[in-house]
Amino acid sequence: MSPRQLALPLLLALALTPVARADDVPKPADVAAAKPADAAASKPAAAADAPKAPDGLWHGSVALGGALATSNSATGTVNANVNAARETVVGKWSLWGIGNYSAYYSRGVDTTTANTLRLGSRYDKYFNEQLFIFGAIEAETNRPAGLSHRVSTDVGTGYKLLRSETSSFDLFAGVGDTANRYTSGVLAEGVQMLFGEESSHKLTPTTSLRQRLSVRTGDGNVGSLTTFDANLATKLVGDWTLTTAFQARRSGRPPVGAKSTTSLLTIGIGYKF
């Protein structure tokens, strides 16, 4: 990781530290002062679609999928998808991870056709009910496609466009430093502008959808990168779900011999916590 990438999160450490403010926590006196008649009058409108207060606990999902086919040859695939978040009144930590491995065996020869891993983390520091700033880091490897590793660090600001009991929608923008190391040994590094949106929706009592789109625009050295991730989870029994995940990626400067656009569709069993 370059010095510039290390400097970005360090410079914002103080700004992003989740220090509670006095006005972040409801005062008992304020709660006690509310009149029962006023509360009863406002409850139908406020409770109709109001978002739940954050509980400060980790929530998320883990999904696994795979396939195996054998005849004169054998093909196997394993994939995983992880998302987790912890939200308080002052901010939110988010973690995500996507992995996919596929291999082909024929006539005594093993060939790896996919070996992708992407991990990331972001912290949002809330200023008020709509505005926040964030710091994020993401790392990725995809050696079969010629990418030894990619590391991106970003800082920026976001706006909570929608918050309700069943839906959320955020817009965000920022700037970051990205370093791409290819399997050929070539290193491409540069500054990228980041734009994106993300949302979650409770479609039915048993089905939820989560999606995220990010667009990175960069100079000719590092190129641009667009990623889209979507996850549809349907409850089976208890906290177990049937999970369908889709990922698409477009690189403005792919490694030599690799396609600029790749996609992955998986179906597996998930667990929500």
- CATH topology tier name: Porin
Provide the CATH top-level class: Mainly Beta
- Return the domain count: 1
Gyration radius (Cα, Å) is 22 Å
Specify the helix fraction band: 10-25%
Question: What can you tell me about this protein's structure?
Answer:
A hairpin with a 3-residue loop joins strand 2 and strand 3 (91-106). It is flat, with a radius of gyration of 22 Å. Mean pLDDT is 85; it is low at 9-47. The protein is mostly beta strands. Helix content is 11%, strand content 64%.
Secondary structure: elements and pairs:
Elements (H helix, E strand, L loop, with lengths): L2 H9 L1 H4 L11 H6 L2 H12 L10 E13 L2 E15 L3 E16 L2 E18 L4 E12 L4 E17 L3 E16 L4 E18 L2 E12 L6 E13 L2 E12 L9 E12 L1
Antiparallel strand pairs: 1-2, 1-12, 2-3, 3-4, 4-5, 5-6, 6-7, 7-8, 8-9, 9-10, 10-11, 11-12
